[in-house]
Design a protein that fits this description.
Layout: H1 2-9, H2 12-32, E1 46-50, E2 53-56, H3 57-69, H4 80-106, H5 113-128, H6 134-145, H7 149-170, H8 177-187, E3 190-199, H9 210-219, E4 229-237, H10 239-247, H11 254-263, E5 273-281, H12 284-296, H13 302-308, E6 315-322, H14 333-337, E7 344-345, E8 349-351, E9 354-364, H15 371-403, H16 408-415, E10 420-425, H17 441-452, E11 461-465, E12 471-480, H18 491-519, E13 537-542, H19 543-547, H20 560-566, E14 573-577, E15 581-591, H21 606-632, E16 634-636, H22 638-645
Helix pairs in contact: 3-4, 4-7, 4-21, 5-6, 5-7, 6-15, 9-18, 10-15, 11-15
Length: 653
Amino acid sequence: MLQSMRNGMNSWLTRIIISALFIFAIGGLVLSDSGGFFRGGISKGSVAEIGGQELSFVEFDRAFRNALARLEVPQLAEIPQYREIIARSTLKKEIQTKVLGFTARENGLIVSDRIAADKLREYLTPLTEQGMLETLALQRVLGQQRISENVLVNNIKNDFAIELMMTALTAPVRASNQLISDMEQYNNETRSANYMQILHKDFSVDTPSSDTLKDFHAAKKELWNTPEYRKISVLRITPELALKKAMGENAVTDEDVRTEYEDRIDEFSEEDRRVISQATFMKEDDAIALRDYMISNKSVSLEQAVKDNKALNGQFVSAEEHTRQTIFPQELTAPVFDSEKDTGIIKPVKSPLGWHLAYIEKTTRGKIQSFNEVKDTLRKEIIFEKASDPLFEMINEIEDMIAAGDNAQAISNFLGLPIEMLDKLSAAGRDENNKEHKLDNTLKTALRYGFALKQDENLHTDIHELPDGSFVVVSIDDIIIQRKIDFSEVEAEVMSVWTQQAQQRKAQDRVNDIVAAVRTGNSSLKDHTLGKKNKLSFMTLQKRDAIFDDGKYSQLPNSFIPTMFDLQKIKDITFIPTNDGFIVMQLDEIKLGEKPDTETDDDTVKPTIAALERGLREDIIEQFLRARTAKYGVEINEYSFSKQYGAKADTEE
C-alpha cells in the first residue's frame, strides 16, 4: 500500500491536489491563528506579553480610554493618526509600568495597607478639598475609571513601590564639578551680532484692479466666510435624575440625610490640635529645674531656656502641630490634651526615652460640623451611592439606543427625559446675529462636543461622562455650513489683506537678496542699510539669556536669542520673521564664558546643576528600563493592535 502511494505521488494530478490541500491548510492557519504564530505567540485577547504576563485588550483599552478622556482638546480624539499616537504612548507606559512593577516585587518592595490608605487619601485630595466626602470621592473615581476598589488600591501600591524604587535608583545622582563647570562655561558664552529690521509697511505696492481683488477674494477659500452654525439637542443624565426615575421623588428624604449624619458624626468632628515644642532630659530633677526657670522667666521660649541652661543637657525638639493620635511619645497625650490652658508649660512626663517637658504654644479647638453645613454634601453622596446601578443601567440603555441610530430627541421621548436645545450657535456660542448666548458649564461642554462630532450620512449622536459624575447626550439636529461673504460686503477688508500680502512678498524678496549677497562674501550686512528705515543695530548677549529668559529682552522676538546662538561661525547670516516684518542678523563675535567656581553656593549655578542632574536621572532611568525590558521580554500583538488602534482602523472593513 505504501509503495502504491509513493508511485501515486509521481502523478501530476496527485501533486496538484496535495499542493492545494497544503495551501488551504496554511490559509486556515493564517485565518484562525490558533497558535498565535502571526501575533508573536500572544493570545488573541492580549495586546502584549511582558515577562510571561499578558496585558489584555480589556485592561489596555481602559487605560487608553482614560488617556483620551484626559485630553485638553477632546476634538483630537477624532483624528485617527492622533488616536494611534495616544494608543502607542499608552501601550509604552503600560509596558514600562509592568516591567517596573516586576522589578519592585523582585527586590522586595511591598507597600503595606496602611501606606496604601494614606496614598489613597492623597489621590482623592483634589476632590475632598472641594468639600466632597472621601467615600463620595472614591465612588466618583471608581465610576470614572470603571474599576473596582481593589484594582485602584493595587494600582496605588504598585505605583508607590515603583516611585520608591526609582527614587532609590536616582537619589545618588550628582553632577560632577567638572561637568558643572563645562556647562556653565557653555551657558556663559557671549555673542555679538549686527541686525536690522525690515518692515512690511515700508514697501509700496500699486493699487490693484477690482477684478484682481475679486479673484483674490474667490481664491482665498478660508477667508471671508460666515461661521458654521449647528442646532444641537442636549440631554443631561445626572445621578439624581436616574434615581428619581428609578425610585420616585422621595428616594432620598431629609430624614435619610439626618440619619446618615448621626451615624457618621465622627467624620464631621474635628479634634483639638496643639502646637507643642519639647525638651527631653535624662533626669526628672533637670526637667523640673527647667520648668521652674520658664515659670520665673515668662517671656522665655523653651528653646531659649534650653540654651540658657546647657548644664541640664536638655535636647530641644522643634514645635509641631499634633492631635491625640499623632503626638509622640504617647505618654504626653493626656497631660497635653487634657490641659485646660491653650498655652503654657506642663509638668515633666516620663517615657522610655527620658523625661519630657512640653510647652503648648498654640491650641486650635476642634468642632463638630453642623448638620446644615454638611447636609447638601451628604445628600449628594447618598444620591450618588443609591443611583449607581440605576444610572449605569440608564447609560447602558442610552448607549444601545445610540448604537441603533436614535438621536437625543428619540431618547428623550422614549425615556421621558427633559431635553435642552442649542439653536443655531457657532462654536464660540454666538448666534447668526453674533449675539453671545450665556451657557452654563454643562452646555458649554455639550457645545464643544457637538462641534467635535462628524457629519456622515446620518447626523451624529454621542454620550460623554462629565467630571461631576453626570453624563451628557449630544445630537446634531442641523448644520448650517459656512457661506462665502459676498465681495461687496468685504471689499475694503479684501483690499487691506491683498496689500499686506503684496508688501510681505516684497519684504521677503528684499531679505532673500540681502542674505544671498552677504553669503557670497562680497558684502556685509552693513552694506545693505537704506538710511533710517533699515538702520543697523548691535546686540551682545550671553547664552544664559537664551536658557533662563527673565523678560529682559522682551522687546525682541522670542526666537531672536536662540537664533543667534544657533549660528555656527562668525559672519554667518540669517533672518527671523516677525509680526510686522523681518529681522536680518549677522554674527559678529563669539566669546567663551569664564569657568565658574563650582564650590560656591551661587544661585546662578543652581539651575544648571538641576538641569544636569535631571538629565542624568532621565538617562539612568532610560537605560534601566531597557535592561529590565530585555530581561523580562516584551512581545506585542502588532497585528491586532494595528487593527484595533491604528490610524486606518476606522476605515478598514
